[in-house]
Amino acid sequence: MTRGKQKIDAQRRNAERNQKSKGSQLEARAVGLKIVCSICKVQLANEKQLTDHYGSKHPKEKPPSTSSTE
């Protein structure tokens, strides 16, 4: 009987593990990305990333102020 109980317990644990991994990383990423570059429409998470993005991708342009990005 212990083999049967161990098998049932293992199946239950595996089912719990598989339930926790539901959802995709892309959905979680979309929630965190709130700022959009006005030139190339890249989504960024915060103001620092936006200024770094403008410095590397659009060096001739000036980054927008914080009030116009949200």
TrEMBL record:
Subcellular location: Cytoplasm; Nucleus
Domain C2H2-type per the UniProt entry, residue ranges: 35-63
Coiled coil: none
Record's keyword annotation contains Protein transport: no
Keywords: Cytoplasm, Metal-binding, Nucleus, Zinc, Zinc-finger
GO cellular component: cytoplasm; nucleus
GO molecular function, one term: zinc ion binding
PANTHER family according to UniProt: GEO09665P1-RELATED, ZINC FINGER PROTEIN 706
Family annotation (Pfam families): zf-met (PF12874)
Residue segments, region Disordered: 1-27, 50-70
Annotated protein name in UniProt: C2H2-type domain-containing protein
Basic and acidic residues: bias regions: 1-19
Domain of life, per lineage: Eukaryota
InterPro entries per UniProt: MBS1/2-like, ZNF706/At2g23090_sf, Znf_C2H2_type
Gene3D superfamilies in the record: At2g23090-like
Chief place where the protein resides: cytoplasm
